[in-house]
């Protein structure tokens, strides 16, 4: 079972909240969707700020500047890979925590677990593999990954998972997660009004 020091605030890890998606399936901006009295963005900002000294939003500056420092895509309309690339290019820290705004069930303990697993590794990316596949939008990235991302973006290849085959990647399997006391439900995201309805019931 993993235990965290609740007083830990990392100064050597930058947290980025990926909020630049078009939210087509939700029909409204997911960052501003209300869950239990708070927007998904507010929930994620609170969690990220409780553990990282530097927290930024990746998205539209005009929309999100009132909430936190904002990083805008260098390669617009290229999906999450474009956001991760812009985040890493803007970062001053080696380790960078990427968090999708639509994953409200993530826990501080899980994120610290990922950070601590990434520290001793030379891997450019540390992420979880579940039965649903890889989880690149709740993962630790080293700044060097920006080079691979930029090469792919310039070539018009926007799928993140394909880059992991060519990059040194540290995978955390389900068995290790379970042994540390974490449930796969933490990775549940909200993509549609039906998803939101289910969690509000």
Describe what is shown at a glance:
The chain contains 8 helices and 10 strands. It is of the alpha/beta class. The protein has a single domain (10-200), classed as Alpha-Beta Complex (Spore Coat Polysaccharide Biosynthesis Protein SpsA, Chain A).
The CATH architecture term is Alpha-Beta Complex
Strand content: 15-25%
| Tally of separate helices | 8
| Mean of residue pLDDT values | 91
Helix content: 25-40%
Global morphology: globular
CATH class reads Alpha Beta
Give the CATH superfamily: Spore Coat Polysaccharide Biosynthesis Protein SpsA, Chain A
Task: Write down how many β-strands occur, each being a DSSP E stretch of 2 or more residues.
Answer: 10
Rounded radius of gyration (Å): 16 Å
The domain count comes to 1
Low-confidence stretches: none
**Main sheet overview:** 8 strands, mixed
CATH topology: Spore Coat Polysaccharide Biosynthesis Protein SpsA, Chain A
Give the SSE order as H and E letters: EEEHEHEHEHEEEHHEHH
Quaternary organisation: single chain
Account of the protein in words:
This protein is an alpha/beta fold and 201 residues long. It has one domain: Spore Coat Polysaccharide Biosynthesis Protein SpsA, Chain A, CATH 3.90.550.10. 32% of the residues lie in helices and 23% in strands. It is built from eight helices and ten strands. The protein has helices at residues 40-49, 61-64, 80-90, 108-118, 145-154, 161-164, 174-179, 193-200; strands spanning 10-18, 34-35, 38-39, 52-58, 70-71, 95-100, 125-130, 133-134, 138-142, 169-173. The longest helix is centred in the middle third of the chain and has 11 residues, at 80-90. The model has no long low-confidence stretch (mean pLDDT 91).
């Amino acid at each position: 079972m993993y235990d965290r020091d609740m007083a830990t605030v990392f100064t050597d890890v930058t947290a980025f909240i990926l909020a630049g998606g078009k939210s087509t399936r939700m029909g409204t901006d997911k960052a501003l969707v209300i869950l239990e009295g708070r927007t998904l963005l507010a929930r994620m900002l609170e969690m990220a700020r409780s553990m990282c000294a530097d927290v930024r939003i990746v998205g539209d500056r005009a929309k999100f500047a009132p909430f936190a420092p904002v990083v805008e895509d260098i390669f617009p309309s290229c999906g999450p890979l474009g956001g991760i690339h812009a985040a890493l290019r803007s970062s001053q820290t080696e380790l960078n925590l990427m968090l999708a705004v639509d994953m409200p069930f993530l826990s501080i303990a899980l994120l610290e677990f990922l950070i601590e697993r990434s520290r001793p590794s030379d891997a450019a990316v540390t992420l979880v593999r579940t039965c649903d596949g890889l989880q690149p939008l709740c993962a630790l990235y080293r700044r060097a990954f920006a080079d691979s991302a930029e090469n792919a973006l310039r070539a018009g290849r926007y799928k993140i998972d394909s880059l992991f085959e060519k990059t040194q990647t540290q995978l955390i399997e389900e068995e290790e997660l379970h042994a540390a006391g974490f449930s796969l439900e933490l990775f549940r995201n909200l993509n549609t009004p039906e998803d939101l309805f289910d969690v509000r019931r």
